[in-house]
TrEMBL record:
Species of the source: Anopheles arabiensis
SMART domains membership: CTNS (SM00679)
Localization: Lysosome membrane
Membrane topology: Multi-pass membrane protein
Protein name, per record: Cystinosin homolog
Pfam families linked: PQ-loop
Nucleotide-binding keyword on record: no
Keywords annotated in UniProt: Lysosome, Membrane, Repeat, Signal, Symport, Transmembrane, Transmembrane helix, Transport
Biased composition (Polar residues): 390-400
Transmembrane segments: 136-156, 176-199, 219-239, 251-272, 278-296, 308-331, 351-370
Catalysed reaction equations from the record: L-cystine(out) + H(+)(out) = L-cystine(in) + H(+)(in)
Superkingdom of the source species: Eukaryota
Signal peptide: 1-25
Annotated region described as Disordered, given as residue ranges: 380-400
Amino acid sequence: MTRTCWNPVVTILWLCALATVRCSAQTTIGASVVLDPQDVTVIVGERQSFFAKVRGMLSQDARLNLTTDHTDLVEIFPTSIVVSPGDGGFIDRVYEIVLLGLSPGQFDVDANVLPTGLIDDAAAFIRVTVANSQPIILISSVIGWIYFAAWTVSFWPQMIVNYRRQSVVGLSFDFLTLNLVGHSVYAAFNCALFWSGFIEQEYLDRNPRGLNPVLANDVAFSIHATIATLLTVTQCFIYERGEQKVSRIAWGIITVFIVVIVVAGVLVGTATFHWLDFLYVLSYIKLSVTLIKYVPQAVLNFRRKSTVGWSIENVLLDFTGGMLSMLQMLLNGYNYDDWASIFGDPTKFGLGLFSVMFDILFMVQHYVLYRNRANEKTLQEDSSTTTTTASNGGSKDSLP
């Protein structure tokens, strides 16, 4: 019979080996470097500073080498920095680095550490934007706020027209329903990505050097748009609407959207999709709605040979916002030499142009084709095709 004897020496050696394995699984990096700020804008011909902040325990000298892949766009001074440990090996220093803008563009600058692994350099990068002109940056910012205001206010004239006329005759219910769906899913996308830390982390995991694309004004706009559209829908249940109703085609399109959302939700539930993928599906539905929502209103105007009941102020504000939005994109394209963001991925610009073209069509219908349909006699004749009640003494389809 074999007896197993306890050997304290062997046990101690085994414990030391186990401790070594566990320690090797942890990071041995005691210092880190951060480039601050991580978004820098520099004007062509001018200089702009940023800082390399190194802090932590350092066992030996290290060198920070800044990438020079874009020497045609910017000059960096210095391109290399020697980092030495302080007393007791601890370092807490800030190094100034200067950029000289040469040509417009957008790119990343990285600081690589040698020897590798001595300093944590995960945050050692900045996004550099070289612009042609500072005034253009300011003009672009002002334009952005103007078109944001125009688009925000554009929802109210239609409600005011409906209230004054006590009628929604002339307003396409298909347009209104599709618009509600589009703004609702857009609000869900913005709110989730803006307020959910879990979903934001998913986005950052896929885009390690990206920024959350949803800003506070995006959330405010989408929520306001949804509420304003819902209030307009409510008016359709209160005021005279004649024989107007949501068409089967519109209901069919909405049903397809619902099926897509349900399927995407099931895929999330079965871990086939991530929540971020689900939100992207909602954004695609919003894009689809934008492409088709104006068609029913244009067709309704054509069939009635009138734009009475459809707010032209809404169209003018939407046209203003769309034109300024595209102007801002063109200004930014020139200022940052970033035409690829417009013509390389034309979705946003194309959607803006598409909306503006429909706004032009509505203006032609209102001011050219059917301008003589706005007199009281014509309105009374037109209203005879809609259902009225004896209690209202006739049609409410008249100008405010």
